[in-house]
Amino acid sequence: MNDRLKGKTILVAGGGGIGGGLARRFAAEGANVVLGDVAPEGAEAIAADIVAAGGSAIATRLDGADEASTAAAVALACEKFGGLDGIHANFANFIEQDDSVGALELPLADFDETMRVNLRGYFLCTRAALPALLERGGGSIVYTSSPAACKGEPVRLAYAVAKAGVEALMRHVASRYGAMGIRSNCIAPGTTIHERLETELDDATKQWLLDLSIIKSRLGRPEDIAAMAALLMADEGSYITGQVIGVDGGVVMRS
Length: 255
Ligand SMILES: NC(=O)c1ccc[n+]([C@@H]2O[C@H](COP(=O)([O-])OP(=O)(O)OC[C@H]3O[C@@H](n4cnc5c(N)ncnc54)[C@H](O)[C@@H]3O)[C@@H](O)[C@H]2O)c1
Hints:
The protein is of the alpha/beta class.
């Protein structure tokens, strides 16, 4: 592993499967990592692992959908490590579990809650982080999107709308703040298997997902997403902005 991120401080908003992979990779490349999650126990365990492996990480309770909480996480990063160089907004709720539900049946409360967390929350993270990044002379914002944002699917309406909104947010940030040194990109993971999905998905579903992919040897892993995120956080990625980058085994081929 190289040390492309040495001297940088990165806030990962949302632990869990992919977020844990992001935190581990950023720290392995030398970053100081602040890992925030609304369920802090998991984030604390990941941060402890990183520190035990010789890396630099702290965990904090972060509700990404709450303005004061996002501001506090950014303040914590600045206080502990002297500033902020990157934020990866990664959390999501997944309350739309019923595939029989479409626009006609989706409870308004579920639509609103998905927007509140998955879209408004990313906006709040952006607003909290931008001043600190600008103070540093620039930085990188990465958002976790999804193929759902562009594919057109009969299920998970609110989730897809929120992710499409995140992609619009990303382009706004890239175009408005680019001249001030801010880069902004989305990573759209394909099916990325980790502990939660390993148990939630049965073998037939995993096979079906594999069949959808161009790469047939395996489904995605958090490490795949983290490898792209590390590039986007690093100076090596300093000419990449305003992009939605699929890390999805070829499920979506963007032009
Ligand atoms: N895993 C996949 O196949 C896949 C595919 C496409 C996109 N994604 C996206 O990747 C991201 C991570 O997904 P994952 O699969 O690792 O899910 P996960 O459930 O393992 O992790 C999500 C984490 O977000 C946290 N969280 C939920 N609400 C929060 C809030 N308000 N504030 C802070 N943290 C909160 C949860 O506690 C959890 O730790 C999500 O944005 C998801 O939409 C995942």
